[in-house]
Amino acid sequence: xxxxWLATGLLLLIALSFLLIxxxxxxxxxxxxxxxxxxxxxxxxxxxxxxxxxxxxxLDADQMDSGRAEAARELLADTEDVAPARVSRLGKPLxxxxxxxxxxxxxxxYLHFGASDKVELTREFAQAPQSVEEMTRRLERAVAxxxxxxxxxxxxxxxxxxxxxxxxxxxxFERTVKVAGRxxxxxxxxAQARYFADGKQWSAQVQALxxxxxxxxxxxxxxLGLLGIAAFEGQRYQEAIDYWKRLLAQLxxxxxSRAALQGGIDRASEKLVAxxxxxxxxxxxxxALLKVRVELAAALKAKVQxxxxxxxxxxxxxxxxxxxxxxxLTVADLPATVELGDSDAMMPQxxxxxxxxxxxxxxxxxxxxxTAGEWVGRSQPLASSTSAQQNLTIDSPDK
Length: 399
Fold this sequence. Notes:
The structure is a single chain. This protein has 3 domains: 2-113; 136-234, Serine Threonine Protein Phosphatase 5, Tetratricopeptide repeat (Alpha Horseshoe), CATH 1.25.40.10; 289-397. It is α+β, with helices and mostly antiparallel strands and 399 residues long. A hairpin with an 8-residue loop joins strand 2 (309-316) and strand 3 (325-330). The chain is 55% helix and 13% strand. It has helices at residues 2-55, 61-79, 93-113, 116-125, 132-145, 150-162, 166-180, 184-197, 204-216, 221-233, 237-250, 257-274; strands spanning 289-296, 309-316, 325-330, 336-341, 357-365, 375-378, 382-383, 390-394, 396-397.
């Protein structure tokens, strides 16, 4: 911040110079004018002496004229280098007053409309906080400076939750939803904060928030965990087991919270058995699996070669352009029936079951490139949960 104020001071000095230089220049002109006035007064005094001497008979008319001409020459010599007097229409006080007011006014305007607080915040966030409390204070200042920042509001809510300030967190998540929209993750965080702020009392608002979150995203982890907690607290152990198992299925294998979550499932199972109940295993939900039969149009059989590659894949109609699942055959294998499922995913996070609607594509590429070829066949959009076999014919030029 010091270098900023040094630069500001330098600019103020430059601005002052434009205002003070004319004032200093005017003082120099004033001194020249004073010297000229003195020379004129001396000239008039000399002429008066000559006139007195002439009246006393000391000087005749020729001597008088000669003395007057000599005094005039001296006056001209003393004043010939003096610049013409400048007429100031503003007066002397006004420029000086402006020189003082301009930097003060500029500073006041900057403090009101400027971004000095944001500059200071940027510098603070460049350094690692020493504690959760310090991070919370920084986030509070950031939210005060940018009240419409969804990221700032969200992280401040998370910081409040880490400090067991659930009521403050609920307010932050509510503001985040207003700014960023009703995203499932935000709704889940809001519901969780509201639940703990109300002393772990389930309410209609919390129920509505979790219902909305899971309707938009059935795998929203915060809502699943919260529903499991509420069910366990309400001694509905089978519900708690079901919710927590759904949550466990979403966590990566190396997630540190898996052990704690499994411990909760085990405790709920023990309490259920101890109360005379029996743990009911939820049916295993299989991933998406599409069965497709691929054929080659009769008109193309003479235009392709047996060794040409055939790429069969499914891609999301609304989502990333990359294939979700793919298999490779050759023209010699056609016609062929293949299955595309989650096990054929090109990337673990891009599975067929993660996208409600997909399109099937079969492409012939002599160069062996899956992204470009000579002939292609495409299906209409269909649900990724479709179980009926699909028929796909390669019959069009690949453009």
